[in-house]
Amino acid sequence: GEAVPASQRGSWSSFLKSIASFSGDLSSLTAPPFILSPTSLTEFPAYWCERPELFAAIAGHKDDEERFLAIVKWFIATLKGQYTSRNESMGSEKKPLNPVLGELFYGHWPDKDDRGRTTLVVEQVSHHPPITAYVIENKSKGLNLTGHNAQKTSFSSSAIIVKQIGHAILTIDSGEGEKEEVLITLPKLRIDGLWYGSPYIELWDKTNIQSSSGWSSVLEYKGKGYFSGKIHTIKATVSPPGSSSVKHTIEGQWHIQTRDMKTGKVFTDVTFPKEEVTVGPTEEMEEFESRKLWGLVSHGIREGDYETASREKSKIENDQRQRRRDEIAAGTTWELKHFVKLESDPVYERLVEDTDITPQEEDCYVYGNNPPAWLA
Ligand code: 0T9
User: Fold this and answer.
1) Residues 6+ apart with CB under 8 A from 178
2) Which of 6, 52, 284, 372 can pair with 109 through a Cys bridge, CB separation 3.0 to 4.6 Å?
């Protein structure tokens, strides 16, 4: 492959062979150095808020329909960061660091232009299988996004197929009357470009956004060769309460622009820079905060010092194995810091009633509200 350094071709092809003969948790497979990312998966939930003004804008509408359109707009605008930003910053999709149980990631987006301050709390709530839980809050606007993420991977001819397990619930508290609750399901992914050593993501299938106000949207994803022949294509339809009739249709490419098909007006435009999350200094972090925990590994990967990276990674993994052994010996289990596990999410159950959205199949996590000191 072209993007694979000559010295790593052998290990890349054996990595691909192991992917092909394997399904389940890819995160545990050892990959050649050139494809390693210095960033842990616990940082990924920040992608939900890299357009903080669009998130805040959701709270700015009294009308149910207008507010719902603001939700769809914010959601579509997050896709570019979620699914193409590694290609932009590192040249291709890379294999993220596999978080340890209890790994934490904290950050915020400062208040600016009346948008309010938005905070992020992430915790790795399971290691096998990897599950990441997060909460993003803008208290001054009454917004809370709580979600969790896991993946089921399989291999099909030349691509990795990723089914995302998990969902997000957006709660909007206007301070008057009942809170609005909105379920967001997650798209499926296809990772192509593997043979050349330059993986990239395409989205497929769909996302449902279902609000307790009754407004709903189905967002369909297609890649090259489907409805427009273009990459990263999206078509969203928005329907009023109690009806499957379509009131709005939005079409375009999620990494560039989409338009409202009725008015012809631009609906989302992500061709200007996003705002990365602000994170405190690493020196002040606790042991399990992602950038502190992986500091030496990430540094090694960034500097091309893979010997140090792999030595430091082994140290972390051995420490984890020892902790699990100690827990078994002591008859204890790891205690989560911020999240509580539920077998089923009552909000999900309620919102999918009378819809054709798949019933919840996985455990879920709710915020236990034990905020880190800096956030309180
Ligand atoms: C939630 C997102 C998710 C996490 C990543 C599949 C993937 C792990 C999960 C779904 C975020 O909101 C959005 C974006 C990217 C997804 C990752 C892309 C990826 O390749 C990894 C998997 C586990 C791999 O590392 C596969 C091997 C690698 C060599 C291909 C680059």
Assistant:
1) 212
2) 52
- 14-62: pLDDT as tens digits: 999 998 887 677 887 889 999 999 999 999 999 999 999 999 999 999 9
What angle, rounded to 10 degrees, do the helices at 306-330 and 295-303 form? 160
pLDDT at 240: 98
Q: Does residue 193's CB lie within 6 angstroms of at least one atom of ligand 1? A: no
Contact (Cβ atoms closer than 8 angstroms) between residue 204 and residue 224: no
Q: Is the pTM of this model over 0.80?
A: yes
Token pair 């967001």: residue: 184
Ligand 1 atom 15: the closest Cα is on which residue? 83
3-state secondary structure the chain: CCCCCHHHHHHHHHHHHHHHCCCECHHHCCCCHHHEEEEEHHHHHHHHHCCHHHHHHHHHCCCHHHHHHHHHHHHHHHHHHHHHHHHHHHCCCCEEECCCCCCEEEEEECCCCCCCCEEEEEEEEECCCCEEEEEEEEHHHCEEEEEEEEEEEEEECCEEEEEEEEEEEEEECCCCCCCEEEEEECCEEEEECCCCCCCEEEEEEEEEEEECCCCEEEEEEECCCCCCCCCCEEEEEEECCCCCCCCEEEEEECCCEEEECCCCCEEEECCCCCCCCECCCHHHCCCCEHHHHCHHHHHHHHHCCHHHHHHHHHHHHHHHHHHHHHHHHHCCCCCCCCEEEECCCHHHHHHHCCCCCCCCCCCEEEECCCCCCCCC
Confirm whether the ipTM is greater than 0.90: yes
CA of 139 to the centre of ligand 1 (A): 30
Q: Is 84 in the pocket of ligand 1 (CB under 6 A)?
A: no
- pLDDT, one tens digit per residue, over 198-233 is 999 999 999 999 999 999 999 999 998 766 689 999
